[in-house]
Design a protein that fits this description.
- By secondary structure, the protein is of the alpha/beta class.
- It is 39% helix and 15% strand.
- It contains 17 helices and 15 strands.
- Strand 3 and strand 4 form a beta hairpin.
- Helix 7 crosses helix 8.
Length: 384
């Protein structure tokens, strides 16, 4: 169906996912040229009803579903089930994020799909996977953040836990789904056989805990929230200036010496408590007091300029408005104006994958209305 040549041109994806984890994954595939057909229930993806709205359209839905075609199929209908089977016969990938057992209810079990469509790549995203005592339970982002441990190390201190501001329970699962689909495509090229990916949102949260797992294993101490601080690198966090906060990341001893030179406090570098990263980490509270004493006389902008001149990683804490005004973000095309005749202006986030061998104008990739492409899809698959 796609004429342009992109990395995934020729790959057809049947997308039965809803809201965030799956749509996040399939949007990446669509950006890379895959033909993504969003197979929706009669009422459509739930996120079509999520605000804020612009000209009656969900900006939430648009931001996750550009470049996909939409068809409604009611799998309770024998005729529509036949249509779905025809789509499956031509598809490369089937992805869903239903609760386990949902597709089986309509006769599309993993075993059936493998038998009837042996080259089909199946990708199943669920809260807890298809094995284990919780396999039948539904999940949401905040549940897997809490259950997967990420919330226990996020927040101001051990008495104040926070959900990560972005829905990383869903988003990380979406990213792993893309990785898994691409691996399955490579495997099919080698074996000429399809396969199935069982992906758990909870598993994905455990996988991104960085060194919290190994630290507990080695030290026997339960990791706790540290605010903006790092558990093993210092100074590495947010510090008060005369007018706001500045984030500083000093990754090694040589950089710490340079940092001390910039803030004009050589005694800090010579202090026995701060000579190595291990000592700085051990004496972090004292270090923070001394650093903030040095920073409090000048503004965040003053220090940003000084640190930039001396190659010391630093930043103010940008809000979303700041991102809209960032020259770096604009240059990288990471926020762009979505083009639609019925929408005057809607800015959405771009794709961070910048390849040397192809470029694509994402602003021209439309988000389809519910069932908008039904006739086109049925005609292409010779169903009408």
């Amino acid at each position: 169906m796609s004429k342009n040549k992109y990395p995934l041109t020729g790959i057809t994806v049947l997308d039965m996912t809803n809201v965030l984890s799956g749509p996040f994954a399939t949007q990446i595939l669509a950006d890379m040229g895959a033909e993504v057909i969003k197979v929706e229930k009669p009422k459509g993806d739930d996120s079509r009803s999520f605000g804020p709205f612009i000209n009656g359209k969900s900006s939430y839905f648009i931001s996750l579903n550009r470049g996909k075609k939409s068809i409604v199929l009611d799998l309770q209908s024998k005729k529509e089930k036949g249509y779905f089977n025809k789509l499956l016969s031509k598809a490369d990938v089937l992805i869903d994020n239903f609760k386990p057992g949902t597709l089986e209810k309509y006769g599309f079990s993993a075993a059936f799909l493998k038998r009837k469509y042996p080259r089909l790549i199946q990708t199943k995203i669920s809260g807890f996977g298809e094995t284990g005592p919780m396999k039948k339970f539904p999940a949401y982002d905040i549940i897997v953040q809490a259950m997967g441990g990420i919330m226990s190390i996020t927040g101001k201190n051990k008495n104040q836990f926070n959900r990560v501001g972005s829905s990383i329970g869903d988003i990380v699962a979406g990213l792993y789904a893309v990785i898994g689909i691409l691996i399955q495509l490579i495997n099919r090229n080698k074996t000429n056989k399809g396969s199935r990916l069982d992906l758990s949102m909870l598993d994905c949260q455990v996988a991104i805990l960085e060194n919290a797992i190994s630290r507990f294993s080695v030290e026997g101490k339960i990791p706790e929230p540290l605010g903006t601080d790092h558990p093993s690198i210092s100074p590495f966090g947010a510090f008060k200036t005369s007018d706001s906060l500045i984030v500083i990341a000093v990754g090694n001893d040589k950089m710490f010496q340079r940092f001390c030179d910039v803030v004009g406090d050589n005694n800090l570098a010579l202090n026995e408590h701060f000579k190595t990263n291990a000592l700085r980490n051990k004496n972090l509270n004292l270090l923070k007091k001394k650093i903030e004493f040095n920073l409090k006389g000048k503004s965040t902008q003053f220090w940003l300029k000084k640190f930039k001149e001396n190659n010391i990683p630093s930043s103010k804490i940008n809000n979303i408005k700041d991102l809209f005004e960032s020259k770096q973000i604009k240059d990288r095309g990471m926020i762009f104006n979505y083009k639609d005749k019925s929408i005057k202006r809607l800015m959405i986030s771009g794709n961070p994958l910048k390849f040397s061998f192809f470029k694509r104008k994402l602003e021209n990739m439309k988000s389809s209305e519910l069932n908008e492409d039904r006739k086109h899809i049925l005609k292409f698959f010779k169903l009408i």
